[in-house]
User: Fold these one by one.
Assistant:
Number 1:
Amino acid sequence: MEHADSARVIRSATKEFPAPLVVRLLRFVRVPYRRRLPWSRAGVLERDRRRCGYCGGRADSIDHILPTSRGGDPRSWLNTVAACVPCNQAKANHTPDEAGMQLRIEPFEPKVQRALVLALGVTQAESLPPWLAASLA
Ligand SMILES: [Zn+2]
């Protein structure tokens, strides 16, 4: 092992090694990182806090704002909202305007960080460590 600087050492709990000049990577573990969050039904329900985008009641289904049968994107964050079954059935194969229904919310694409919050099983960013909460702002 070549040493760049014998003053630099790497310490473990019980051992001490001179810091190497070159570190050879034997195995590379790729950690997937996505800048955009893939669409999912569960994600839409979480994003909308399980509230129906039309009446505000408890939502158990996903409504495609522009129905897929009419060219609406089936897996778009912007074309989907959480909906209760009665609203979803009432809207059926129509746009909200045609069905005389008004969206209470504006659909948006959640940030990847938001997914992290959900994955950690917390409901409020405030319950996260400050350094993580700050990255969600
Ligand atoms: Zn509803």
Number 2:
Amino acid sequence: MNRDWRAELKRVLPHALLDEPLSRHTTFKIGGPADVLIDARSVAEAQTALRLAAAAGRPAFVLGWGSNLLVRDRGVRGLVLRLAGEFERIDFLEGGRVRAGAAVRVPQLVVACAQKGLSGLEPIVGVPGTLGGALAMNAGTRDGEIGPLVLEIEAVDLSEGDVRRLVKDDLRFAYREGPLRGRAALSALLRLKPGDKGDIMAVVSRYQRKRQQTQPIHTYNVGSTFKNPPGRFAAQMIEELGLKGYVVGGARVSPLHANFIENFAGAKAADVLALVDLIRERVRAAIGVELELEMRVVGE
Ligand SMILES: Cc1cc2nc3c(=O)[nH]c(=O)nc-3n(C[C@H](O)[C@H](O)[C@H](O)COP(=O)(O)OP(=O)(O)OC[C@H]3O[C@@H](n4cnc5c(N)ncnc54)[C@H](O)[C@@H]3O)c2cc1C
């Protein structure tokens, strides 16, 4: 059965990759193989792949830039869908509105908007993922999140392949949680504020510089490991417990930013998960706070 649906998918979409190591597609450089990884370049390709997987009873998962994901060492069963091609477009509309495909990278979108004199996205210029991932995670910083800028999302149901437009009440964003469970965003309509191009670009540059100084952006990591508990900072708690630089296997707590875990020496997902457990136990025991994961863990 497994071989049949994969063979059929490969026949219809020959660029599909079978048993593709996801370590090649995550910023952690960690993760076992996907049964099938498909770059869908159009709605039709996405629907074809999703419906073939669904007909064979296989689950589907949508992957962006892999910048918030820990894929376990035995990989992901079923279909891993990624968007490309027509989902990489940015269209500037009237009234400060921008329609962008879910595969557009966030830094590229922020700079393109700034260059058109459109403001709002500057705080997330350092989020290295795709627009789709940003919508799924309600990506943001202390200075702003993407959620309030979203007017509409076009999304495909991962289990049926049906496309729907999400508006108003469908668009419930919370802290690092978007409105997309069970769906892949295909594109979004954002409303930004017109402003002075030079001023907006200056703000973008300031955010970029700050990040370079405070985050280990040249290492293999997925950004913040844990969400900040209400009124507190996870990084501060981890640092106070002396865990900066703590090593398990090939994974370590970043010496620069205590809420980042780095794959510094061929780490396995198991190393990262063991380090996560250790941090949570120490924080629970010493401070009485239950840390919740911000990075998402998938696979088996
Ligand atoms: C150096 C660094 C700095 C970071 N800084 C920040 C920060 O300041 N703020 C912040 O919020 N995050 C930050 N992150 C984390 C990460 O970049 C964001 O969470 C980002 O939005 C994830 O996007 P992605 O495309 O990489 O998604 P992935 O990691 O590929 O996926 C993450 C989740 O989004 C889902 N997803 C991906 N694409 C879609 C889609 N098209 N439709 C529906 N769901 C989808 C996936 O299924 C998964 O559940 C940082 C990461 C790094 C490595």
